[in-house]
Amino acid sequence: MAKRVGMEVSIAAAEAVGLADVDVIAAYPITPQTHIVEHLSELVASGHLDAEFVPVESEHSAMSCCVGSSAAGARTFTSTSSQGYALMSEICYIAASLRLPIVMVTANRALSAPISIWNDHADLMMARDTGWIQTVAENGQEVVDLIFHAFRVAEDHRVLLPVMVNLDGFILSHVIEPILLPDRQEVEAYLPPYVPRLRLDPKSPVSIGPVGMPDVYTEAKKVHDEVLKGSRLVIEEAWDDFEAKFGRRYRAVETYRAEDAETLLITMGSISETAMTAVDALREQGKKVGLTRIRLWRPFPAQDLFDAVKGARQLVVVDRAMNLNSICGPVCGEIKSVLFDRHHAPYVKNYIAGLGGRDVTVQNFTEMVEGAELSARRGDPMGYELINLKE
Amino acid sequence: MAKETGIVSWKDLELGISIHRPGSAGELRTGDWRSSRAVTDFDKCIKCGRCYIFCPDMVYSRNDKGYYEQNYYYCKGCGICASECPVDAITMVQEGD
């Protein structure tokens, strides 16, 4: 039976990867890194986990090693953050297009300069167009649950794509939370052993990763796009079965007190829990405010998002990354596209918040809601604004 | 993969664009790019085989008499063979002339 224990979320993530009976972990062990791979290396070294731990010399090599091990048919895991992800990113595109079901946990952190080790979503957004599935956790339990889900979805023969599980760096990765860790039998019942559809085998040779001339590259991108789109069905099935087996329910887009909301906050990641507290406070003042939280970033749940926000008059989209000098932040840009495609035009205010580890408080959310309502009443142009900025 | 070209419906691509038949690249008609082709003067040829060794594709093969003959299915017209030939037996002839 599962037991609830107080545990640092990074350690819990490592324990979850161990419970998933991973075969190979390749990781760069130095900054930017978390206790996730440190604890995995301890589990391997102490004999608690029968896996290969490959401490490589860079994140570029980490993902390259993962590509090789996954192509050889091994259940493969890595983890990184920020600059490490940036160095790794070249190979991340390759892992996805070669359809290798690698699972990576990314403790989301800011990209330099200035040098920052703190939390924001710059790395998450950098990963956006790699063709990986991306899920986002709001708390430690979700990190654990989404890791099991990630392996199950990635390795499903209808998908065979890598999955990135995102959690906010420090705010989640270094915090001790009560975690319900299932036992191995429960995980095995949910996550069957990985059966590769394609693997490097001298007895049955295949070439993986050949050149794609102009007459095939477009078709290769099309099939990747279709598979990513089609993965949504498997993602849902795996969440349905997760609920049946573990009793916790996950959805691509989740809402909080949103039914009759006139002003709706839209968030992604751990700040969603702060936003819920703000919504409660604003509701107590009689304001019709609700919250929509994005859990699945890729494949992008456009219709779910539209259904969740279509009743609101004002949308307050909170981005934790900045598209420098774009129309708005990356989450807001997606939402505006969803609305435009469906000829729906509420007032959309975009706030950029929590960059490089700056706290986003309940007070900040209250200011955002009030600021958006004021802008909507005045008919201000719908731009983006940095919250909590020192002028 | 279709023969001669890589053109294939996205629905028929192998998983991860992998290739399952060893040597299938031999079916690709790389000779359709060339603007000039290598032609050997067998009166000058000394059968050294440098054209065969240096050819980046699969153009040259040795015949019964020991001469190296071209298979234009593959010849891209790069001219490396003509450049390497020690007795200038190979000339590049403009296609369409």
Give the tags.
heterodimer, A: about 400 residues, alpha/beta, Rossmann fold, 2 domains, 7-stranded mixed β-sheet, 6-stranded mixed β-sheet, 12 helices, about 40% helix, about 20% strand, B: about 100 residues, alpha+beta, Alpha-Beta Plaits, two-stranded antiparallel sheet, 4 strands
Concise overview:
The complex is a heterodimer of chains A (391) and B (97). Chain A is α/β, with parallel strands linked by helices.
Shape of chain B: elongated
CATH H-level superfamily of the largest domain in chain A: Thiamin diphosphate (ThDP)-binding fold, Pyr/PP domains
Total helical elements of chain B:
2
Number of strands of chain B: 4
The average pLDDT of chain B is 92
Report Rg of chain B.
Answer: 16 Å
Structural category of chain B: alpha+beta
- Number of self-contained structural domains of chain A: 2
CATH class of the domain at 29-94 in chain B: Alpha Beta
Describe what you observe in this structure.
The complex is a heterodimer of chains A (391) and B (97). Helices cover 42% and strands 19% of the residues of chain A. Chain A has 12 helices and 15 strands. In chain A, the strands form 3 sheets. In chain A, strands 3-2-4-5-7-6-12 form a 7-stranded mixed beta sheet, with helices on both faces. A 6-stranded mixed beta sheet of chain A has the order 9-11-10-13-14-15, with helices on both faces. The longest helix of chain A is centred in the middle third of the chain and has 33 residues, at 214-246. Chain A is globular. Chain B has a domain at 29-94: Alpha-Beta Plaits, CATH 3.30.70.20. The termini of chain B are far apart. Chain B is built from 2 helices and 4 strands, in the order E-H-E-E-H-E. The radius of gyration of chain B is 16 Å and the shape is elongated. Chain B has a two-stranded antiparallel sheet. Chain B has a two-stranded antiparallel ribbon with strand order 2-3. The A-B interface holds A 97-100, 160, 197-198, 205-210, 212-213, 215-216, 218-220, 222-223, 226 and B 5-11, 13, 15-20, 22.
